[in-house]
């Protein structure tokens, strides 16, 4: 009986009615990989004690005498694997199959009935500077292989999030090789960003990995395929003569994905494809089963869009999504300390390549110290729920507005509260709490005013972009700001550079306890703060010098917040005359602001000093 909701038993595409079917207990057991355990006189590598993860210290490994019984490590702090039993098993079955057609057919049947047997008995992997190494799937890798088979068997489109250097690309190619070698007529695609990534005829490329697998298999296993065989092995194409199975390389960009129809298509590093949403549209009917495999790269890409869609089919292990480095048989905390200390890792790059964290994996983030999650209650998280993050009638409301002309209008509602009772803030003594957001396109100025006045809030100040606000209100000779004044809403602000308002937000974010967003009521602002970034130089991978943040869907709420912070907390002011324009009292508005300096907090009242 097939269990469509579970992949754990899917080691083959066959079912019990197929003539080639073998029960799992009839398939030979392949010895698993083990850790190498130290004996007397063995050496191992270690790192200096006292170094903590990500503390900025340099990490230089050293070699020492191993304690008997401990697991031996290499200089990268990976556990050294014991593959001797597996190699002995491979040597025995290879010898048994030489010039023995019955043995060969038996082993091909075993491979067809078990992707795990095929991988652990016949597949190899490449490591620079080393002899070919047997690919021996450990526990989570076995689950991933079975998950791939489940997706293909049930014609599912699914997504695998991963840490880098876990073998996911090799497993993807092992699955495609298995499909075309043992299942007649199967058509498969492998896709990546650029041609060299798909097929450079080296082991670095996807199809190069497949050729490497085939080169190390006996001829009777590869169905008549030979490297550079005319008509069966060419650039971006491999065909197995006996099964007519094909593996085609495609580019995951432009219109390359529009043609063809396959049983399975695997997209490699899809989060890093430029214009991935357009690519997704172009390749939406490319295969019955489309599987997206990638490290993460923020939220503004199709990989993240698929991941967070309600019907997403994800790989899970021990109740958690993805193939995280902590589930890698070769790695543990010491490896992570050693790896994290490498100069190439910024906070964003570590989140991107190792932690499967969408919120902090955008390169060149405008607010790199923004914390979306914390590991200790002693750490400040900028996104919270609870009473402190809600609107409090004891405090007046401050409003930041980014006027949309062709873009959406964006509004943030905040209050400046006394410090959180569980978190002492000695720098500012107060906390800006953004408790509500609003964003809408094609909103008229009257509609914007009515929205603001419909709220049951005691307003203190409305801060907006004075430049945009000077544009004419639709079908009127007066500006947006003047039109809003008719409703009793006086817009104030500063004529400042683009960088200055961002700096004021950053100053708040960088000090724990000074800035907070209600994570339930402000989901768009949360994503905008997490994902707003500077353009990245393609050569260096670093933000471009002297550039402004990218103007995209994340800009509007960020600008509304920046205008507000710059007005409230910025030291230099170039605003309109506050006393002249704030002498009003309308509906639920508070009394006018009398000065322009920064806020101080009193529990019952907020005033400027």
Brief digest:
It is built from 18 helices and 24 strands.
Structure notes:
The chain is 28% helix and 17% strand. The protein is α/β, with parallel strands linked by helices and 609 residues long. The chain has two domains: 123-327, P-loop containing nucleotide triphosphate hydrolases (Rossmann fold); 383-608, 2-Layer Sandwich (Nucleotidyltransferase, domain 5), CATH 3.30.420. Strands 7-13-12-8-11-10-9 form a seven-stranded mixed beta sheet. Strands 16-22-19-18-17-20-21 form a seven-stranded mixed beta sheet. It has a two-stranded antiparallel ribbon with strand order 1-4. Helix 15 packs across helix 17 and helix 16 (523-531) packs across helix 17 (555-569). The radius of gyration is 30 Å and the shape is elongated. 41% of the residues are buried.
What would you call the structural class? alpha/beta
Low-confidence residue ranges = 573-609
Regarding quaternary structure, what we see is single chain
- Provide the domain count: 2
Q: Could you tell me the number of beta strands?
A: 24
Strand order of the largest sheet: 7-13-12-8-11-10-9
Distance between the termini: 75 Å
The proportion of strand residues reads 15-25%
Gyration radius over CA:
30 Å
What is the CATH C level class of the largest domain, in words? Alpha Beta
What CATH architecture label of the largest domain applies?
Answer: 2-Layer Sandwich
Largest β sheet strand count, sense and barrel closure = 7 strands, mixed
Number of helices: 18
């Amino acid at each position: 009986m097939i269990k469509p909701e579970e992949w754990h038993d899917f080691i083959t595409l066959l079912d019990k009615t197929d003539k080639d079917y073998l029960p799992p207990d009839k398939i030979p057991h392949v010895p698993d990989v083990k850790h190498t355990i130290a004996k007397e006189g063995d050496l191992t590598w270690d790192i200096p004690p006292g170094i903590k993860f990500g503390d900025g210290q340099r990490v230089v490994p050293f070699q020492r005498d191993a304690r008997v019984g401990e697991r031996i490590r290499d200089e990268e702090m990976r556990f050294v694997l014991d593959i001797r039993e597996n190699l002995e098993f491979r040597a025995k079955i290879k010898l048994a199959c030489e010039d023995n057609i019955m043995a060969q057919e038996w082993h091909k049947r075993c491979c067809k009935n078990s992707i795990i047997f095929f991988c652990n008995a016949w597949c190899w992997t490449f490591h620079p500077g080393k002899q070919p190494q047997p690919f021996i799937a450990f526990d989570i890798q076995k689950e991933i292989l079975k998950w791939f088979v489940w997706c293909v068997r049930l014609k599912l489109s699914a997504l695998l999030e991963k840490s880098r250097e876990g073998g996911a690309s090799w497993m993807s190619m092992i699955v495609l090789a298995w499909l075309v070698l043992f299942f007649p007529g199967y058509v498969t695609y492998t896709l990546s960003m650029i041609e060299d990534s798909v097929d450079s005829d080296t082991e670095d490329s996807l199809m190069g990995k497949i050729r490497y697998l085939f080169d190390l298999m006996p001829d009777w296993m590869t169905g008549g395929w030979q490297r550079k065989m005319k008509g069966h092995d060419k650039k971006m194409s491999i065909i197995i003569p006996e099964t007519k199975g094909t593996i085609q390389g495609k580019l995951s960009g432009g219109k390359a994905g529009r043609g063809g129809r396959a049983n399975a298509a695997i997209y490699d590093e899809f989060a890093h494809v430029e214009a991935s949403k357009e690519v997704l549209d172009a390749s939406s009917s490319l295969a019955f089963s489309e599987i997206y495999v990638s490290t993460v790269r923020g939220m503004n890409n199709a990989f993240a869009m698929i991941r967070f869609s309600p019907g997403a089919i994800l790989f899970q292990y021990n109740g958690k999504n993805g193939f995280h480095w902590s589930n890698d048989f070769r790695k543990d905390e010491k490896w992570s300390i050693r790896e994290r200390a490498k100069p190439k890792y910024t906070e964003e790059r570590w989140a991107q390549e190792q932690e499967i964290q969408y919120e902090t994996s955008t390169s060149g983030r405008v607010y790199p110290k923004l914390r979306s999650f914390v590991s200790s209650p002693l750490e400040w998280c900028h996104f919270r729920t609870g009473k402190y993050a809600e609107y409090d009638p004891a405090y007046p409301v401050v409003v930041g507005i980014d006027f949309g002309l062709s873009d959406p209008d964006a509004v943030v509602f905040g209050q400046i509260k006394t410090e959180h009772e569980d978190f002492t803030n000695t720098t500012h003594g107060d906390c800006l709490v953004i408790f509500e957001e609003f964003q809408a396109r094609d909103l008229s100025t009257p509609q914007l005013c009515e929205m603001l006045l419909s709220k049951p809030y005691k307003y203190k100040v409305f801060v907006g972009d004075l430049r945009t606000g000077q544009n004419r209100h639709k079908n009127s000779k007066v500006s947006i700001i003047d039109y809003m004044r008719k409703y009793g809403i006086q817009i104030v602000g500063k004529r400042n550079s683009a960088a200055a308002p961002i700096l004021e937000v950053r100053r708040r974010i960088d000090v724990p306890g000074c800035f907070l967003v209600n994570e339930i009521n402000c989901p768009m602002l949360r994503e905008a703060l997490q994902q707003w970034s500077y353009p990245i130089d393609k050569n260096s991978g670093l933000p471009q010098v002297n550039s402004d943040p990218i103007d995209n869907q994340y800009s509007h709420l960020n600008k509304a917040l920046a205008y507000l912070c710059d007005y409230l907390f910025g030291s230099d002011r170039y605003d309109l005359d506050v006393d002249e324009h704030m002498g009003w009292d309308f509906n639920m508005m508070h009394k006018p602001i009398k000065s322009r300096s920064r806020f101080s907090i009193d529990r019952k009242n907020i005033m400027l000093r």
